[in-house]
C-alpha cells in the first residue's frame, strides 16, 4: 500500500481527513461568519448580496488577522510533518464556496498567480464537513507536472474554460 506522501509526490494530490482539530475549525468558522456579517452591515446590505459580490479575503485583512495566530502553528505542523522538513507559510486566503457565490471557479493553476513568490504546495481546509462526492473542489491528478500557464482573468465574460473541457480533465 502506497503512503500518502508517495501518492502526493506521484499525483500531486492527497486528502488528509481530520488533520485539524474540530475546535479550531469551529473557531475559524465562527470568526469568518462574524466578519462576513460585520462587512455586510458596514455596506448596508444583507449577507446574501454581500456574498454574491465578495467571496475571497486575502491575509492580511481584519477577518484573517483574528485567527491567523491560532491557525499558523497547526498548519505549519501538518505541512512540516507531511513534507518531512522545514516549511514556510506563504499566505492564507479565505474563499467562500456557498450558495450565494454559486458560480464554479474555472480550472486554473494557483501557482500562476504567484510567479514572483512561488510556493511548493497548497493546503485546502474545509470549514464545514465535506466528502469527496460533494464536488466542492476538484484537482487534476498529475497536473503539477504541467508547465505553469499564464494567469488569466477567469471571471471575464469572454473566458472559456478549455482545460475543464479537455480530454485530459474528462478522464479523471
Verbal overview:
The protein has 172 residues and is mainly alpha-helical. The protein has one domain (4-170). Helices cover 38% and strands 3% of the residues. It has 6 helices and 2 strands. Strands 1-2 form a two-stranded antiparallel sheet. Helix 2 packs across helix 3 (47-53) and helix 2 packs antiparallel against helix 4 (62-83). The longest helix has 22 residues, at 62-83. The two termini are 21 Å apart. The mean pLDDT is 82.
Which helices and strands, and how do they pair?
Layout: H1 4-11, H2 22-42, H3 47-53, E1 56-58, H4 62-83, E2 93-95, H5 162-165, H6 167-170
Antiparallel strand pairs: 1-2
Helix content: 25-40%
Mean pLDDT: 82
In DSSP terms, counting alpha (H) and pi (I) runs of 4 or more, how many helices? 6
Q: Describe the sheet with the most strands.
A: 2 strands, antiparallel
Short description:
The chain is mostly helical.
Descriptive labels:
globular, 3% strand, 2 strands, 172 residues, mainly alpha, two-stranded antiparallel sheet
